[in-house]
Amino acid sequence: MASNPASSIPFLLSVILILVVGTNAGGIAIYWGQNGNEGTLAQTCATGNYAFVNIAFLPTFGNGQNPQINLAGHCDPTTNGCTRFSSEIQSCQASGIKVMLSIGGGAGSYSLSSTDDARQVATYLWNNFLGGQSSSRPLGAAVLDGIDFDIEGGTTQHWDELARFLSEHSKQGKKVYLTAAPQCPFPDAYMAAALNTGLFDYVWVQFYNNPPCQYSSGNLVNYWNQWTTSIPATNFFLGLPASPNAAGSGFIPAADLTSKVLPAIKGSAKYGGVMLWSKYYDDQTGYSSSIKSSV
């Protein structure tokens, strides 16, 4: 039977569309630094599972405080013990992994009291973790790729100014990436103004410890769509706990994530992948390995 070239065009277009949508692959972001039993930074990157590593946390800064990094059992910053991770950071980056410093966290002492305070914090971060110069760089000479905003407390003001001041340093050479980990209820209580600046490259929304918008509520996709259509960021990640013990609620079994959730959100042009809390819990479950091919 002879084929009709004209009638085959729509079929070919549909095949191309399916291929394009189906190849909307993403990466996995992981938080590392809050459990001394989760392996080194170099070991984390060597798994090959992660595209981004957020070093957690710088939980003390702003409002006149002396900034202090806290990497739990990994090192003692008061004796410069964390500088040993400099070579490991550089090794991760050599493998194409972006390494961020996460500021804030769920149990920190941080706030910004004014525009000038935001400027001072940005200058501190630039000089001590990014491309600036300081004699007291907590992680050594390695230049991190950017700053992750995990703001879950303190004040709701001036985070947008901190983002702007940090972004301005991109003009001095290496780009300063900005990432954020807002809670899934929209808008985020602390970072709404900052996220609306359009300066954030990656936003990993925490779809856990927030029952109204996590998977078990049946509302996850609606909230995902609200985030991806309302915030002018480049890529969005689905933030999840890597095991049932990693959070109070919100864990999604790997089979459900790969067969039900990811197919429902990967159609977004802003889909970037999955964020996991944290490396320690991922070690217990092998979660990232089980979902990597589907992300």
TrEMBL record:
One family name in Pfam for this protein: Glyco_hydro_18
Superkingdom, natural source: Eukaryota
Position of the signal peptide: none
Coiled coil: none
Entry annotated with the keyword Disulfide bond: yes
GO biological process: chitin catabolic process; polysaccharide catabolic process
GO molecular function, one term: endochitinase activity
Residue span, GH18 domain: 26-295
EC annotation from Swiss-Prot or TrEMBL: 3.2.1.14
Reactions the enzyme catalyzes: Random endo-hydrolysis of N-acetyl-beta-D-glucosaminide (1->4)-beta-linkages in chitin and chitodextrins
Record bears the keyword Manganese: no
Keyword terms, alphabetized: Carbohydrate metabolism, Chitin degradation, Disulfide bond, Glycosidase, Hydrolase, Membrane, Polysaccharide degradation, Transmembrane, Transmembrane helix
InterPro entries: Cts1-like (IPR045321), GH (IPR017853), Glyco_hydro18_cat (IPR001223), Glyco_hydro_18_chit_AS (IPR001579), Glycosyl_Hydrlase18_Chitinase (IPR050542)
UniProt GO cellular component terms: extracellular region
TM ranges: 12-33
Family: Belongs to the glycosyl hydrolase 18 family. Chitinase class II subfamily.
Protein name: chitinase
